[in-house]
């Protein structure tokens, strides 16, 4: 099973292109299963910051 930040809140914020649920872009969501475990972990470290930015928008 591949770890995923998806929490089933799939709504893209138009100005930023980020999902309001997980903070990923649509491209990142699309390629998630092809990313290496290290790349997924690195991206997951960025998501809390992105979600904070969405809260302020």
Structure write-up:
It contains two helices and two strands. The chain is globular and about 30 Å long. The protein has 57 residues and is mainly α. It comes from Falsiroseomonas tokyonensis.
What structural keywords apply?
57 residues, mainly alpha, globular
Topology of helices and strands:
Layout: E1 12-13, E2 18-19, H1 26-31, H2 37-56
Antiparallel strand pairs: 1-2
Number of strands: 2
The secondary-structure element order is: EEHH
Distance between the termini: 33 Å
Q: Characterize the biggest β-sheet.
A: 2 strands, antiparallel
Weakly predicted, low-confidence segments: none
What would you report as the Rg, rounded to the nearest angstrom? Answer: 11 Å
Q: Let me know the average pLDDT.
A: 95
Structural class: mainly alpha
Tally of alpha and pi helices: 2
Helical amount among residues, as a percent range? 40-55%
The shape, in one word, is globular
- Beta fraction of the residues? 5-15%
Strand sequence of the main sheet, in spatial order? 1-2
How would you briefly describe this protein structure?
The chain is mainly α. The protein contains two helices and two strands, in the order ββαα. The protein is 46% helix and 7% strand.
């Amino acid at each position: 099973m591949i770890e995923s930040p998806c929490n089933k809140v799939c709504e893209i914020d138009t100005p930023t292109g980020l999902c309001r649920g997980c903070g990923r872009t649509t491209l990142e969501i699309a390629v998630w299963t092809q990313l290496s475990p290290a790349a997924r972990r690195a991206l997951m470290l960025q998501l809390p910051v992105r979600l904070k930015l969405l809260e302020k928008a």
